[in-house]
Specification:
- The protein is of the alpha+beta class.
- The strands form three sheets. The chain has a two-stranded antiparallel sheet.
- The protein is globular, with a radius of gyration of 14 Å.
- The two termini are about 25 Å apart.
């Protein structure tokens, strides 16, 4: 269980945005954002602040305890995005279509999305 002081530190560091997709918590009125373990405890992760990330409901469910996944396009094993090690601008970027803005993803996030659909 994450104590209230640590929770507030994670919220402040993230600017109250999901550290995976950058959605602000005010933009998701249906779900509370989660404090998630970047490396799950079952894989040796700890409750250290450096291993905790703020995640929206959808991204927390997508990632789960996984560290890697199969890219559905290349069929290669890829590491999932780690907000403490990876540069978000290399993994995500806003793109625009006639339907409006959306986030373009690299292979690690395509893999995480595919894992969600498979469950």
């Amino acid at each position: 269980m994450i104590d209230s002081l640590t929770r507030e530190q994670v919220l402040q560091r993230a600017g109250r945005r999901c550290e995976y997709c950058l959605l602000h918590e005010d933009d998701d009125p249906l779900f509370t954002f989660h404090i998630e373990h970047i490396i799950a405890k079952q894989h040796g992760g700890t409750d250290a602040l450096s291993n905790l990330a703020l995640a929206c409901h959808q991204d927390n469910l997508r990632k789960g305890p996984n560290l890697t996944g199969i890219d559905p396009v290349t069929r290669q094993l890829v590491r999932l995005f780690n907000p403490r090690r990876h540069n978000g601008s290399k993994h995500f970027r806003w793109a625009y279509s006639t339907d409006g803005p959306y986030i373009r993803k690299n292979c690690s996030e395509r893999s995480a999305s595919a894992m969600t659909r498979a469950q």
